[in-house]
Write a structure and sequence with these properties.
7-stranded mixed β-sheet; alpha/beta; Rossmann fold; about 475 residues; 15 helices; extended; Quinone Oxidoreductase, Chain A, domain 1
């Protein structure tokens, strides 16, 4: 699902138009009855007309989120781009309505996701919207089609150019938010469980981060198979929700050892384990497998610690990286699989098969994306923070709908509150300093009092001596 061409097309759109427009401009032939000076006047007017039309083409603008460098939440900035993107053969132009936020986007912001090109670049692997234009050789998409898009990057913007093969028609009744929440999470969960895992009735599955996008998708897909037992790890506050969603045994990974909890219920171990964590957790997962069990590792979330890249967390993850000898696999009768949707961008037929099955399940009411919250493009930093702090249950969505003026006005108020808090903190610090100074003065006074007493005693002695004399 390569989207490498799209940003390049958008950035060079103006230059291409300026080069092609004069060639496309029809020549105005002068009537035979027209005098030579009149014809010359028309010829002189032609370049002026052309110059007027170029700015008209350039007037097309759209907003895009751009990763300007690696680091904190402020590195993703909202920018305005100029020039309408051009279409190559086999491509479509989509007016984006909603975008999906994924854990990989958080890692990309820190420079930990190698499928995103170096900054400046527009992130975003999935979106939904309406087809506005189609290129040559596109036969199965038309203007007005509502589609969901799966691409390597470049979708966090108001318009996006993508290959038509990367788009899928939105079923009747599915909202743009649901459509943007479906591609990455559900294709990932489906291919891991069924293509690698060969999930069958009466099996057991461990789903880490069961309240996240992939976790909820995997749990729903497990329910499409008879009598599958799902173990799900999540913080205690999310247990009720994931249990209602199909998790059989919810485990609080923050307060309990999930390995011990699984062993209590299933002493022999598990049939399938989905591991998005990496590091030492992959070792634990392998040891939890039953004979003929399958470990499917698809991420390194343990690397993500803090707003910016944490070198200690990265080093720790690599130090504990799982590796195994083939002889151990043979003796243990176990299998280890690796999955990365970003590296399947060229396998359009394989992904299309998975998507078609998922959409059929949606139409049957067997799967349905759970939306945690929707954020404006201007709020991408806050959305990323919520996901990174593991405060979401379900999918985080970015909407391209402009933020209402009232909400924009409220933003400075937040800043004012921060300033007020800083002032309050400063006052508190100043008060503490004043109190400390007062205490010092009291201590000095206490120290001086004995000296005064001694001085008085000496003076009394001197007076006594004088009286004796």
């Amino acid at each position: 699902m390569s989207g490498e061409d799209a940003p390049a097309q958008q950035q060079n759109a103006v230059d291409q138009k300026q080069e092609t427009k004069p060639a496309e401009e029809p020549k105005t032939e002068s009537p035979k009855t027209e005098s030579a000076p009149a014809a010359a006047a028309d010829a002189a007017a032609t370049p002026a007309a052309t110059t007027e039309k170029v700015p008209e083409e350039e007037a097309f603008t759209y907003r895009a989120l751009v990763l300007t460098g690696y680091g904190g939440y402020d590195k993703v900035k909202l920018q305005v781009k100029k020039g309408k993107p051009t279409l190559k053969a086999g491509e479509v132009l989509v007016r984006v309505k909603a975008c999906g936020l994924n854990f990989a986007d958080l890692m990309a912001r820190q420079g930990l996701y190698d499928r995103l090109p170096s900054p400046p670049v527009t992130p975003g692997m999935e979106c939904s919207g309406v087809v506005e234009a189609v290129g040559e050789e596109v036969t199965d998409r038309k203007v007005g089609d509502k589609v969901m898009v799966l691409n390597r990057f470049g979708l966090w913007q108001e318009v996006a150019v993508v290959p038509a093969t990367h788009t899928f028609l939105i079923p009747e009744g599915m909202s743009f938010e649901e459509a943007a929440a479906l591609p990455v999470n559900y294709v990932t969960a489906y291919m891991m469980l069924f293509d690698f895992g060969n999930l069958r009735p009466n099996q057991s599955v461990l789903v880490h981060s069961a309240a996240g996008g992939v976790g909820i998708a995997a749990t729903q897909l497990c329910q499409t198979v008879k009598d599958v037992t799902v173990f799900g790890t999540a913080s205690a506050s999310k247990h009720e929700t994931i249990s209602q969603g199909g998790v059989t045994h919810a485990i609080d990974y923050r307060t309990k050892d999930y390995v011990e909890e699984v062993r209590k219920i299933s002493p022999k171990g598990l049939d399938i384990i989905l591991d998005p964590l990496g590091g030492s957790d992959t070792h634990k997962a392998y040891n939890l497998l039953k004979p003929m069990g399958k470990l499917i590792t698809y991420g390194t979330a343990n690397m993500l610690a803090g707003q910016k890249k944490n070198l200690l967390a990265v080093a720790k993850n690599w130090y504990h990286q799982f590796s195994i000898h083939t002889l151990s696999l043979i003796q243990g009768n176990k299998s280890v699989c690796g999955f990365h949707l970003g590296y399947l961008d060229g396998e359009t037929e394989l992904i299309a098969q998975a998507m078609n099955t998922i959409l059929d399940l949606y139409k049957q009411g067997k799967v349905k994306p759970r939306i945690d919250s929707t954020w404006h493009l201007e709020q991408v930093g806050d959305a990323m923070r919520k996901m990174q702090e593991r405060n979401n249950i379900g999918k985080m969505i970015l909407t391209t709908e402009p933020m209402p003026e009232e909400e924009k006005k409220e933003e400075p108020k937040k800043e004012d509150k921060k300033e007020e808090k800083k002032k309050d903190d400063k006052k508190k610090d100043d008060k503490k300093k004043d109190d400390a100074k007062k205490e010092e003065k009291k201590d000095d006074k206490k120290k001086e009092e004995p000296k005064k007493e001694e001085k008085k005693e000496e003076e009394k002695k001197e007076e006594v001596k004088k009286e004796e004399k």
